[in-house]
Amino acid sequence: MDATRNTVLEAWMTEHGYSSNSLAEAVNRAIERLTGRPGGLDGPSVRAWKAGRVTWPKSAARTALEGVTGLPAVALGFVPRSRPSSTPAPPQQEDPDMKRRTVVGSIAVVAAAAAAPGTASPRRIGMSDVNRLNKRFAEIIASDHRHGGQLGIEHRAAALADEALNLQNAGSATQRVRSNLYASAAAFRSSAMWAAIDGWRYDVAKAHMREAQALAEMSGDQAIKFRIWSHAGTMYRHMGRPAEAFAANDVARNLHLTRRDPLFASLGLARQGAIRGAAHDRTGTRRAFEQAQDAMLRADPADYRPVWMLAFYDQAELDSLALSAYLALGIYLTAEYHAHRSLSALRPHMIRSRAITTTRLAHAQLAQGEADAATATAMKVTAEAATQHARVTRMLQEFGAALGATAPGSSTVQTWTEHTAAWRMAT
User: What is the pTM of this model?
Assistant: First the structure.
């Protein structure tokens, strides 16, 4: 006798926009969360469910599927295996709760198959849930600009990414809502990635990156794909691996979003300029920043852009990236010029960026032989940034070493030593 198709499961998948492959992927992720090991389902596995060739999935897959759908397996058209009649279960081993669930589940199957009105349905996830997550994302962005690189920011962002994914399993939703939930999860994970990069925790950053990239692909959101790959380019630049930095940044720059919005094109070009500076390519650096500036001037400020882009990319950030590039190239006067431009345009909430730019300005001044001016500049960095932000701390330590080599035994070195001791005491 031919297997009976599971039309209930098919109907649920159609309603919620799942293909066989995408449902297998969702269940595999749920299995990994349950067991710590990736699931092994694929499209043919789900097609076997739909065709009725598998009427009762294995325990882990069944539990994971129930988590994805928010429904018991029997309400999805599956039928529990019965014992062979030749080996009846002893009466004392009968599970009355299982019997009750089977009866109730059978009723649910019939009701679902007949599409009877009044059937209980799972919670409906909507755009209000997405908007609530986006508000939390804005809070993460604001915290990053104040503090940056902190483990607390990384952990909060990662937890919110998990929260967005859990909403996928909390009820039914349209495909639009599900795509937005994946985009939110990718955005949070990319913030965790950036916090790890900013804190010099590169192995952790790469793990966040891989998760963020997968989520971004499922969302189809071009802006968040750009953010992740652009972050990856910055990470490899900080790691001293320019070839990989170029490759990652090129993925971001080649997204069609950059052809539609000159501001995204500008950011991609500015970060390319920073990478070229790190690779000691003077001509390429200059050309990239000229193109980045031109693209920024063509961008319409009234166009819609995601909150993370609006919060940080402007003329001040472009000049900050140019400062980094020309500092790496050893063109210190040009680096100082961009530092002053950046500091004059920085918005008040960019506390972390102000500390980094100020520290780089001090390096540019010191390299030109201006030890007193450089020290006075470095002393403007706040105690919190100097001691709590990994990147700033390291840059200031490098400044102190360079100052000691430039003016050994001088009163300027003594002033700097006393000031750094006061920083440590203040925190």
Answer: 0.68
